[in-house]
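Hi all, posting the design record for the shared folder.

TITLE: backbone redesign
STEP: 1 of 1
STRUCTURE INPUT:
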């Protein structure tokens, strides 16, 4: 699998801290000798990995540019987001990751009837320093990210639990983790619970996606956060008004610190975020999606964010 990607999105739609970062956002940064970062239209290799089966039940991945959520027996979420904060059932510390070298394996129970419930287990590893000659994979300086996901379900519903361990200085900040503007390098353990259900027929009854993440920080210093959490609910409708059209609505709370060592508080602890969209097909290859989104107490108490966007997608 190789994905080439380009884009020059900047401003609010690539702001990872405010909740306005779009799932479709792509930017090609260029850092000049002066240190100035600019957006360009350069095409780059965004993802590259090799996937292969071992028998009927195992899948294996290995590659120099991959993220942990690609190396799963199945996706933890069926909700299709507009803003990235609602991706993966909530883009918090369990599944939130960056492109890195890595490898993984997933086992799926074989069942006679595809509609029956089945178990699956996924285990994977990524290391941000894996492409650095001074670190490498499985090295104390490689900023490691281990993820294990256990799931049970059918094609119509699923419940899952995942445990993520970020070690050896893997940083976490306001986008995936806590308190905008502050970066920490302590080890972190996060648990992500996910559940979804979708109706047998399309129409007025929506599919439902639930997500909850809770994380703890090892050996947090005085004044630093040692616990954090996030949650989301996503609803999706297919064939709304016209066959092929779809709609979505999601709301929740971005991950924020809920406990500090000694004194301290996260000004975004009580934040709420939401989005709503309607997507209609112009023809077999083109769809247009108007969307609105917003949030309160995002990054800081009293800081509200509201926005709108129209996305046009071409498939060929």
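Okay, here is what came back for every position:
SEQUENCE:
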């Amino acid at each position: 699998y190789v994905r080439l990607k380009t884009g020059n999105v900047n401003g609010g739609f690539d702001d990872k801290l405010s909740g306005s970062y779009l799932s479709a956002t792509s930017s090609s940064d260029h850092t000049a000798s002066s240190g100035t970062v600019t957006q360009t239209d350069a095409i780059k290799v965004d993802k590259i990995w090799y996937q292969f089966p071992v028998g009927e039940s195992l899948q294996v991945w290995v590659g120099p540019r991959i993220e942990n959520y690609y190396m799963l027996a199945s996706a933890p979420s069926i909700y299709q987001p507009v803003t990235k904060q609602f991706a993966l059932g909530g883009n918090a510390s369990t599944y939130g990751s960056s492109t890195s070298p890595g490898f993984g394996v997933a086992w799926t129970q074989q069942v006679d009837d595809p509609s029956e419930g089945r178990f699956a287990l996924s285990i994977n590893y990524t290391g941000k320093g894996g492409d650095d000659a001074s670190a490498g994979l499985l090295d104390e300086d490689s900023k490691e990210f281990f993820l294990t996901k256990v799931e049970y379900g059918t094609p119509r519903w699923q419940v899952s639990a995942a445990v993520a361990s970020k070690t050896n200085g893997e940083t976490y900040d306001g986008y995936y983790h806590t308190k905008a503007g502050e970066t920490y390098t302590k080890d972190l353990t996060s648990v992500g619970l996910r559940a979804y259900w979708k109706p047998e027929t399309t129409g007025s009854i929506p599919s439902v996606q639930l997500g909850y993440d809770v994380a703890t920080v090892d050996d947090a210093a005085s004044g630093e956060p040692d616990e954090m959490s996030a949650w989301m609910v996503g609803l999706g409708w297919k064939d709304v008004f016209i066959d092929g059209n779809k709609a979505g609505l999601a709301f929740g709370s971005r991950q924020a610190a809920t406990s500090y060592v000694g004194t301290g508080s996260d000004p975004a602890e009580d934040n709420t975020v939401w989005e709503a969209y309607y997507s209609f097909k112009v023809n077999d290859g083109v769809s247009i999606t108007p969307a609105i989104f917003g949030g309160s107490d995002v990054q800081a108490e009293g800081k509200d964010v509201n926005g709108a966007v129209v996305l046009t997608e071409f498939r060929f």
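COMMENT: The longest strand covers residues 246-260.
Let me know if anyone wants the other runs.
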